[in-house]
């Protein structure tokens, strides 16, 4: 009996202890006091209603307001609904934020019961938090989609943003500040506006088996002319002929220029592919680009290089002003140029080139197996693990991938006369090339991942900012020595290798070929 009483006492004490733990008061939250007068009535929220949202951020927000409704302001509600309604302007979808349901609730706001008002309040907050997250850093996470994208993760605190909007009573201003402010993003939004002004696209796909040259006569020209008139590249005509006349040639050249194609007036595969893009597909492309721009850095530095991979352009920007523009050659679809942001470190004159693993495996070793004289013809020296030079006669296929292959400096070097280094995990850099004729091609997706720059000596001299030691004349003298020399880039200059295929200029739509086939896939993932 004593043992039984002792057991009951222990169980009672444990039970009391458990109850004490369960009843431990929650962590204290600094509740925000609201100044009267305020519009509408404030209603207490049953905290059990939070469960269906499965959102700790939602709970934390309402805890700040003592678990009471917050959207008494008609002005604020209209701002939110208007943002949701026009979400497409930011590359987002109204349905993601329950716009139709919320708008119906707003239309009968004065007839809603207290329970309905609470539900409306919670829905507004939950969807606005989601919307702020999406306009600040995108709907998707690039790290979950791409293996060759290295962008610093953003971490938006939606509640800090919301509390700021309430405190300053400037909801619209605060929401606008969450959106990317870069000029390209704004030009993308303008592109969406321009595109939406076009009528419904009912034109059929254009099929042509051969190139069409000026003065050719072909039935397909009727469809081409209609397409050019639709996109405002060709002025409307009362009657159309099958002849590829002068006015249509000029219209095609305008169209080709807008799409980054060789403006030669010849209608080949590239021009035909661009002509066959429908209004809907262009819209999807713009939305995909708007999503991508939300992933990019908001702080780019006072001075930076911005590389648009599909545009084959490098621009030097200083204090928001483009001071230099260079043509570039970028990676092929098989060996893509990675997307990244970094800080320039130093330039190397008369660089050697250590062959990277991919090029070694796919290019150098197969060529050497076919012809042992290949390495000498390319001025490549082979070293073993001990640093000993391996002659062509001693080169063994079985050990080929364990050797180190180094190309000597010189005009024949694959890196050309200079390379510009910045830290990154892909071992890519900017460099000159021994194939400068490639810059005349319109399709310059030709490299193995690094970015080749036209007129690199001018760029390097500018970046070094040392007119005494590194002006073009001094650089030329250094190059003549044939000796490898490093030069530090002392002024903070950043490099941004990014990817966008659509924008607008002077109210004209601009598109580029999606060389890595990213746009359609990204739009599908967004949906």
UniProtKB/TrEMBL annotation:
Transferase listed as a keyword: yes
Top-level lineage group: Bacteria
CDD domains: YkuD_like
Database matches in Pfam families: PG_binding_1, Scaffold, YkuD
Statement: the UniProt record of this protein carries the keyword Cell wall biogenesis/degradation: yes
Keywords assigned by UniProt, alphabetized: Cell shape, Cell wall biogenesis/degradation, Peptidoglycan synthesis, Transferase
InterPro entries (UniProt xref): LD-transpeptidase_YkuD-like (IPR052905), LD_TPept_cat_dom (IPR005490), LD_TPept_scaffold_dom (IPR045380), Peptidoglycan-bd-like (IPR002477), PGBD-like_sf (IPR036365), PGBDSf (IPR036366), Transpep_catalytic_dom (IPR038063)
Pathway given in the UniProt record: Cell wall biogenesis; peptidoglycan biosynthesis
List of catalytic residues: 431 (proton donor/acceptor), 450 (nucleophile)
All copies of domain L,D-TPase catalytic, residue ranges: 303-496
Family: Belongs to the YkuD family.
Name the record gives this protein: L,D-transpeptidase family protein
């Amino acid at each position: 009996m004593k043992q039984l009483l002792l057991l009951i006492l222990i169980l009672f004490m444990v039970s009391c202890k458990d109850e004490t733990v369960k009843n431990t008061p929650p962590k204290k939250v600094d509740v925000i006091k609201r100044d009267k007068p305020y519009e509408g009535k404030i209603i207490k929220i049953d905290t059990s209603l939070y469960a269906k949202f499965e959102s700790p951020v939602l709970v934390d927000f309402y805890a700040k307001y003592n678990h009471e409704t917050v959207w008494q302001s008609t002005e604020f509600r209209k701002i939110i609904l208007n943002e949701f309604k026009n979400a497409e302007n930011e590359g987002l979808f109204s349905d993601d934020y329950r716009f139709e349901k919320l708008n119906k609730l707003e239309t009968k706001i004065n007839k809603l019961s207290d329970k309905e008002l609470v539900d409306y309040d919670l829905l507004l907050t939950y969807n606005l938090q989601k919307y702020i997250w999406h306009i600040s850093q995108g709907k998707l996470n690039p790290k979950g989609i791409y293996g060759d994208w290295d962008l610093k993760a953003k971490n938006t605190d939606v509640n800090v943003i919301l509390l700021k909007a309430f405190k300053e009573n400037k909801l619209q201003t605060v929401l606008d500040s969450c959106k990317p402010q870069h000029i390209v993003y704004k030009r993308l939004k303008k592109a969406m506006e321009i595109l939406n002004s076009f009528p419904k696209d009912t034109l059929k796909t254009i099929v042509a088996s051969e190139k069409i040259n000026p003065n050719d006569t072909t039935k397909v020209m009727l469809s081409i002319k209609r397409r050019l008139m639709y996109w405002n590249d060709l002025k409307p005509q009362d009657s159309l002929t099958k002849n590829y006349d002068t006015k249509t040639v000029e219209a095609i050249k305008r169209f080709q220029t807008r799409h980054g194609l060789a403006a030669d007036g010849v209608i080949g595969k590239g021009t035909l592919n661009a002509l066959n893009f429908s209004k809907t597909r262009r819209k999807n492309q713009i939305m995909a680009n708007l999503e991508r721009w939300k992933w990019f850095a908001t702080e780019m530095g006072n001075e930076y290089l911005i590389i648009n991979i599909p545009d084959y352009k490098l621009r030097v920007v200083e204090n928001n002003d483009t001071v230099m523009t260079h043509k570039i050659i970028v990676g092929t679809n098989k060996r893509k140029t990675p997307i990244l942001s970094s800080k320039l470190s130093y330039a190397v004159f008369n660089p050697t080139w250590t062959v990277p693993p991919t090029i070694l495996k796919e290019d150098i070793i197969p060529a050497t197996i076919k012809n042992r004289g290949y390495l000498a013809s390319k001025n490549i020296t082979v070293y073993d693990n001990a640093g000993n030079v391996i002659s062509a006669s001693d080169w063994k296929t079985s050990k080929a991938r364990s050797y180190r292959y180094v190309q000597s400096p010189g005009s024949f070097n694959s890196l050309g006369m200079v390379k510009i280094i910045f830290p990154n995990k892909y071992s890519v850099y900017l460099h000159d090339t021994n194939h400068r004729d490639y810059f005349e091609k319109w399709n310059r997706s030709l490299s193995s991942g690094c970015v080749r720059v036209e007129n690199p000596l001018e760029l390097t001299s500018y970046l070094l900012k040392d007119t005494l030691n590194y002006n073009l004349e001094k650089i030329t003298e250094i190059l003549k020595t044939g000796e490898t020399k490093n030069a530090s880039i002392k002024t903070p200059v950043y490099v941004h290798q990014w990817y966008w295929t659509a924008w607008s200029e002077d109210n004209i739509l601009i598109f580029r070929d999606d060389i890595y086939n990213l746009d359609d896939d990204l739009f599908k993932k967004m949906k």
